[in-house]
Amino acid sequence: MNIKKLESLYNYIISIEPGINVNVSMAETSQHHETYPYDMEKILEFLEKEGRKGMRVLDIGSGLGFPVAAFAMSGYRASGVEHDIEFVRHSRKKLERMHNDGRIKTLPQIIHANFFIREFQNLIPEYDAFFSYNYGAVHARELLGALKKAHSGAMFLVEQRYFTPEILSSTGFSPIYEEDSESYLIKN
Fold first, then answer.
1. pLDDT tens for each residue of 127-176
2. CA-to-CA distance for 90 and 22, rounded, in angstroms?
């Protein structure tokens, strides 16, 4: 997906739907910043070069749904998990509209849950890649620990600043791609 399409998608996703009570400042921080479309472009290009098109991707902390929408529009089977019910309502509404007008073939599932609950952990082996882009240093070890249940070869696409080499070395994940010290693409 080219950068113009990603920018357009980003602007569509972050426009808050009427009747949805999303705290705008919280929504802006959840969707990173104006470079988010460029970061997604790099990730999508990398996955395509790796021959990963069509794999199942889970966005952990999916916020307003931009990565889920970008993955779905690019041919991935995307899902998201988000604990904030208003973000879930917003992203479901946007994704449903995109599905109904043909922009995405398969409607992504947005799950309202805490990623760390035991019931959700049982779903981890079903996914080929995990995406987490603003989840925070507080959850880095816990998140990687939970992803130990992922199948061999599963990828974890993440911002480097939250996942230091010390955290990575203690979890069995290793970097396979790094650019400008901004993001890692990791697999176990």
1. 998 888 765 556 777 777 777 788 888 888 876 666 666 776 666 676 77
2. 8
Distance CA 182, CA 188 (A): 20
Residue extents of the structural domains in the chain: 3-150
In this structure, CATH architecture of domain 3-150 = 3-Layer(aba) Sandwich (3.40)
Note the Cα 151 to chain centre separation in Å.
18
Q: Determine the Cα–Cα distance for residues 183 and 185; give it in Å rounded to an integer.
A: 7
Q: In the structure encoding, which two tokens stand for residue 45, read together? A: 């290009």
Tokens, residue 151? 């199948």
Rounded Cα distance between 143 and 157, Å, is 12
Q: What is the CA radius of gyration of the chain?
A: 15
Helices (H) and strands (E) in the chain, counts: 8, 7
| Token couple for 109 | 């599932």
pLDDT, mean of each 10-residue run, the chain (188 residues): 90 79 55 72 88 90 92 95 91 95 94 78 86 68 78 78 68 67 58
